[in-house]
Amino acid sequence: MADITRRFGWRHLRSAPTAHIRHHKRGRLVHDGPGLSFWYRSLSAALSEVPVDDRELAMAFHARTSDFQDVSVQASVTYRISDPAEAAARLDFSVDPDTGSWRGAPLEQIATLLTETAQQHTLDVLARTPLAVALVDGVASVRGSVTAGLAAEPRLPATGIDVVAVRVVAIRPEAEVERALRTPAREQIQQEADRATYERRAVAVERERAIAENELASQIELARREEQLIDQRGTNARREAEEKAADGIRTETEAARKVRLARADAEAARETGAARAEAQAAWLRVHDEAGPGTLHALAATRLAENLPRIDSITLSPDVLTGLLARLGRPEGGADA
């Protein structure tokens, strides 16, 4: 919408570059072009503003397929007004000279024309197409049919309208039919999911079985080792008992040996004592039977054996005489 400024009974219009302005004064075209800016009097001015930029028109309508199934079609059409003069001549693009707003609704008229034309060609295509084919290939066929139909529509060039692009967003059946159509795929997906679940469970069961077998093998090995341990303990106990018995036998044997040794020692001591007593008695009998001189000589011999070594001795005659006298020898023997 153009900007209108008031100054002392005059009006000033300033338009955008995408708006084509047509200014008529007393039936004559005074200003014509996009992005204009000029002064005018509202009482004598007839203004038209035609947008020349690309416009997007979204549309949605219902159609029926050849198998009598209702579908909804979502599409959009991009158009532009290539001939503003033709458009202003065919449609009411006049604006209020005081406010700059459209007096009518020209864009709505263009939207109605494009929508009805596109709907007509869409219905024509889908009426000959089954629902399954329409859901798979309907977007391309509807887009081609609508594009060709809009290009062949004579009112559009006569109004100065060019269709830039046609896009079909979606073709969707009713909710119940859509759910019914989704059911086989969902069932297939569910079957695949169930199969994966079963396989996962089978793998889990197999792993649990392997774990249980390992645990059982471990228990069996543990029981076998416990049995070996019990056997070894019994063997150790028997060996300990045998060793204790052997120690007792050795102790008894040693005690008996010591008793025998003691008895032998005692017997030897008795025999030794008896022999010594007999020897002493015999010695005493010999001394008893010997004379005094012999005894004196033996005593001197024993005394001499126990005296220290004497290299020389000097005896006075008196001592020698007395000694010889005690030995029972004559005095003349001293000289010898």
Task: Lay out the secondary structure.
Elements (H helix, E strand, L loop, with lengths): L2 E5 L2 E5 L4 E7 L2 E7 L2 E4 L4 E7 L3 E10 L5 E12 L2 H7 L3 E2 L10 H21 L4 H22 L2 H4 L2 E13 L1 H115 L2 H15 L10 H11 L9
Antiparallel strand pairs: 1-2, 2-5, 3-4, 3-6, 6-9, 7-8, 8-10
Helix pairs in contact: 2-3
Could you list some keywords that capture this structure?
single chain, alpha+beta, three-stranded antiparallel β-sheet, 10 strands, 58% helix, disordered C terminus
Describe what you observe in this structure.
This protein has 336 residues and is of the alpha+beta class. It has seven helices and ten strands. The chain has helices spanning 84-90, 106-126, 131-152, 155-158, 175-289, 292-306, 317-327, and strands spanning 3-7, 10-14, 19-25, 28-34, 37-40, 45-51, 55-64, 70-81, 94-95, 161-173. Strand 3 (19-25) and strand 4 (28-34) form a beta hairpin. Helix 2 crosses helix 3 (131-152).
* Helical stretch tally: 7
* Strands ordered across the widest β-sheet: 4-3-6-9
Q: Which percent bin holds the helix content? A: 55-70%
For the sheet with most strands, the description reads: 4 strands, antiparallel
Structural class: alpha+beta
Q: What is the N-to-C succession of helices and strands?
A: EEEEEEEEHEHHHEHHH
Mean pLDDT: 84
* Distance N to C terminus: 190 Å
Q: Whole-number radius of gyration?
A: 75 Å
How much strand? 15-25%
Short synopsis of the structure:
The protein has 336 residues and is of the alpha+beta class. It is 58% helix and 21% strand.
